[in-house]
Structure formats: structure tokens, C-alpha cells
């Protein structure tokens, strides 16, 4: 089992995410299948990130986000573009860092234990949004800009997986 031992304190985040990116690159290197790559990546994130209760992907299909590979409790099957944190990330083509999901207008509560959320849109080589990475935490204000910036290079590893 792969494991990172650095704490996720702010001073250690750059090293943590650099190590995590290397681990992700190793997992995805010889895998040309999108679903297999998403499954392994969601597992890696779920087991390596501290204080999270859900990590996974929603994939864009006919103007709807459809549940993809994930780790955590069962989740919403479909999310409309523009709704919830995931749908907002797609509509705005921008990462969403939500410190308190109860303060986010239209938040979709798939797991009532989730209190904060980080959603990063996924883009293909042509710049088209293909889905999102969604990570939830049972703690308020779990995610910050360092987390988003640390995870972005990991999501970029998926760019070549879309055909």
C-alpha cells in the first residue's frame, strides 16, 4: 500500500501534494482506461487525504453530471449543471472551495456528515469540461487554496485519458 506520512498542516502541504502527485502519476502511467484511472485515483485520494469522508468523480454526459468512480458512502446519481457545488463548478468552469456547505445556496446533501467540500472541474485537451473531482469532509473549512492548487496537477494527469 502506498502511504504518505507527512502531516497536512499548511507548512507541509506543498511536500504532501508533491508526493501525492508522484503517487498518482505512478498509478496512472500505464493505464489508458479512463474508468480504471478514475477508480484508482479516487481510492488514492480517499486513503491519503486526512479528514475526508468522500472522494470521487462525476462525469459530464448530455448536460448532466453522472456519478463515476468514488470512495465513500453512496452518492447522488445525477447532478444538473448549475446545481449544487459540483454543478456550479461546471457552470462556472472554476474550482469551488466551500468552507460550510450549509451556507452554499442549493447545496445537494448526499451525505449529511459532509460539512465542507472541494470541487475541481476536469478538462480535456481541447479545454472542454468533462466532469469534476469532488471531495467532501466532515469538518468545517477543511479545504483551502493550497489544497485546490495541490490537487490541480493531479487532475491534470487525467487530460490524456479522454478520447
Order of helices and strands: HHEEEHEEEH
Radius of gyration over C-alpha positions, nearest whole angstrom? 15 Å
Q: Which strands sit side by side, in order, in the main sheet?
A: 3-2-1-6-5-4
**How many strands, what sense, and barrel or not for the largest sheet?**
6 strands, antiparallel
Low-confidence residue ranges? 1-7
The CA-CA distance between the termini, in Å, is 30 Å
**Helix-strand category:** alpha+beta
Question: How does this model look, in words?
Answer:
There is one protein chain. With 163 residues, this protein is of the alpha+beta class. The chain is 32% helix and 24% strand. It has four helices and six strands, in the order H-H-E-E-E-H-E-E-E-H. The protein has helices at residues 13-28, 34-48, 84-92, 145-156, and strands spanning 54-60, 64-72, 78-80, 96-98, 116-123, 129-137. The protein has a six-stranded antiparallel beta sheet with strand order 3-2-1-6-5-4, sandwiched between helices. Strand 5 (116-123) and strand 6 form a beta hairpin. It is globular. The N and C termini lie far apart (30 Å). 34% of the residues are buried.
Amino acid at each position: 500500500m502506498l502511504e504518505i506520512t507527512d502531516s497536512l498542516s499548511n507548512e507541509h502541504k506543498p511536500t504532501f501534494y508533491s508526493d501525492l502527485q508522484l503517487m498518482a502519476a505512478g498509478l496512472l502511467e500505464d493505464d489508458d482506461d479512463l474508468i480504471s484511472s478514475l477508480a484508482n485515483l479516487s481510492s488514492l485520494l480517499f486513503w491519503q487525504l486526512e479528514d475526508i469522508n468522500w472522494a470521487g468523480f462525476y462525469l459530464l454526459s448530455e448536460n448532466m453530471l453522472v456519478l463515476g468512480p468514488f470512495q465513500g458512502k453512496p452518492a447522488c446519481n445525477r447532478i444538473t449543471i448549475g446545481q449544487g457545488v459540483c454543478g456550479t463548478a461546471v457552470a462556472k468552469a472554476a474550482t469551488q472551495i466551500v468552507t460550510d456547505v450549509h451556507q452554499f445556496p442549493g447545496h445537494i446533501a448526499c451525505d449529511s456528515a459532509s460539512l465542507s467540500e472541494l470541487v475541481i472541474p476536469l478538462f480535456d485537451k481541447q479545454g472542454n469540461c468533462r466532469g469534476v473531482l469532488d471531495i467532501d469532509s466532515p469538518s468545517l473549512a477543511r479545504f483551502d487554496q493550497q489544497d485546490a492548487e495541490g490537487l490541480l496537477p493531479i487532475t491534470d494527469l487525467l487530460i490524456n485519458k479522454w478520447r
